[in-house]
Write a structure and sequence with these properties.
The protein is α/β, with parallel strands linked by helices. The strands form 2 sheets. A 7-stranded mixed β-sheet has the order 1-3-2-4-5-8-9, sandwiched between helices. β8, α5 and β9 form a beta-alpha-beta unit. The N and C termini lie far apart (31 Å).
């Protein structure tokens, strides 16, 4: 059973997928701010074994958990236009899911190209939806993954590279936090 929170009641859905070892609470400040725009219903959730979700951590099931969150948003909340936004592990899961099902757009923040056994780099070319790739230039593994994503992805695509070495949702607590919030909101609103 996955624990989740819903913010706002706008017509467009946004699912925020957390990084490891964080949980959904790492997204709460952004979820609150995005929901306050009135345009979005925002869903955060804990992957299995994290936070209040039951079960054991299973990295080969993060895509399954995110798909369940999408199903919930569609079936229970009645929203079928959904963006996926993920940090690190959650970003890899978001890219995997976006390669399988139609989404309004997908955002990858500091996401590994591979999160074994999941390989987002191998499937990113299948994503037709708008894509936004975000990383910090000195977060070397994530920066290298982003370079590979950029090369393999078709359009439409955008990228943002911030100074520093903050990873995933830790960027919100850095000097680039306000810029990240603005960039995400701009991408979601524009698409």
């Amino acid at each position: 059973v996955l624990d989740a929170r819903v913010f706002g009641d706008g017509p467009t859905g946004v699912i925020l997928a957390h990084m490891r070892p964080a949980d959904q609470s790492s997204w709460f400040p952004f979820a609150t701010e995005l929901a306050a725009t009135g345009g979005f219903t925002v869903l955060t959730f804990d992957f299995r074994g994290y936070g209040e979700s039951t079960g054991e951590k299973q990295f080969d099931r993060v895509d399954t958990d995110l798909t369940a969150a999408m199903t919930y948003m569609g079936d229970e909340l009645g929203i079928d236009r959904i963006f996926l936004v993920g940090a690190s592990m959650g970003g890899t899961a978001s890219l995997i899911v976006a390669s399988r099902v139609a989404v309004a757009g997908v955002v990858s923040i500091s996401s590994p190209a591979q999160f074994p056994p999941l390989d987002a780099e191998a499937v990113i070319g299948r994503i037709d939806a708008p894509k936004l790739f975000i990383t910090s230039q000195d977060d070397v593994p994530a920066y290298r993954s982003q370079e590979r994503f950029w090369e393999a992805a078709g359009g439409p695509k955008e990228q943002e590279i911030y100074e520093g070495d903050e990873h995933g949702t830790d960027i919100f607590a850095s000097a680039n936090g306000d810029a990240l919030t603005a960039r995400l909101t701009e991408f979601l609103t524009a698409n």
